[in-house]
Amino acid sequence: MMDDLINFFKSEEVKKDLAESFNETEQKRKILEAFPYYENVFGLKDRVIYRIEKLDHMKENLKQCVLYFKHPSRWGDRFDSIFVRVPLQLNGITAEHDYRDEYFCQCWSSHNREAMWQIYNTINCGRGVMFVSTVNKIMRAIWDQSDDAIHIKRWAGEVMYVRLRELIQENFFEKIYGNAINVFESSCKGLVMTFLFKQDFYEHEKEIRFIAHKKSCKRKEYALIKVQGQWKDIIDKVITDPRANEEFVKEATTIFEPYEIRVESNLLQNILPAKYTFRA
Questions:
Q1: N or C: which end of the chain has fewer CB within 10 A?
Q2: 122 vs 43, 53, 268, CA distance in Å?
Q3: 3-class secondary structure, 82
């Protein structure tokens, strides 16, 4: 099935459409010949995704037209993207990867569940809002048309959940991909793929991760990735925290209204029944 999908996207007509849709330069059209760089993106493009952020942070991001990406080494789970936390070896010799400190990620979920609010409500001090979008819309928003580097600039992929005892084995990545992917290859596809593994304890999150290269942010904790287009074409809607009060919903509506983004109230009192009745 994957072979059929790859052959489909390698057709001249489709490659032309893809190039035009991203307003590619001639050099980037040539890169489209190596379709595996993009197979993860287009396999997920119509997937609806969700992300919870603190309203105060997103207010500033809206003004600056940026999305907040974090370096994988700064994630709370020390086994998440473990490949950026430990030394790498090439043919038995410890080696530094030229771009390991220059890739940043933003995490979304393909599930909209109550558990997400419970996890992030404390982190966001009860001022969280959920953004609803699709993989394709976020990819188009963060696409950097000015970056002519040969290695991967932007990527999207589903997180793969594995048992911890497998994840911490030295030859884990080799066991998964064999010789098919080299972490040190110049395209950085192998490096990018290491950001998509997480222990199965978190499998309920169903994460989709966006990965962006930004050289100027080397060795920093985060990167602000400039977005292309209007926010109304990037974010489908915003859902407020069910534990928030009406004043918070009004505040969120006021913030997103100038960007023509619809705010949907998710107040707990609007969901609960007015009463329960019983018969003796």
A1: C
A2: 34, 11, 16
A3: helix
Q: By the 8 A CB rule, do 89 and 95 touch?
A: yes
Strands 103-109 and 207-213: antiparallel
Most confident of 69-73, 157-161, 258-262: 258-262
3-state secondary structure of 46: coil
Average pLDDT over residues 126-148: 83
Give backbone dihedrals phi and psi of 56, rounded to 5 degrees, phi first: -65, -40
CA–CA dist 183, 188 (Å, integer): 7
Owner of token pair 């169903």: 206
* Neighbouring C-beta atoms of residue 216, cutoff 10 Å: 7
DSSP 148-205: --SS--EEEEEPEEE-HHHHTSTTHHHHHHTTS--TT-TT-HHHHHGGGEEEGGGGGG
Q: Are 152 and 187 in contact (CB under 8 A)?
A: yes
**Do you know the residue count of the chain?**
280
Question: Both tokens of residue 222?
Answer: 């985060």
Compute the mean pLDDT over every residue in the chain, rounded to the nearest whole number: 76
- Biggest CA-to-CA distance, the chain: 77
Residue reference for tokens 């849709």: 21
Q: Could you tell me which residues come within 8 angstroms of residue 131 by beta carbon, excluding any fewer than 6 positions away?
A: 50, 51, 52, 53, 58, 235, 238
- Pairing between strand 88-90 and 197-199? unpaired
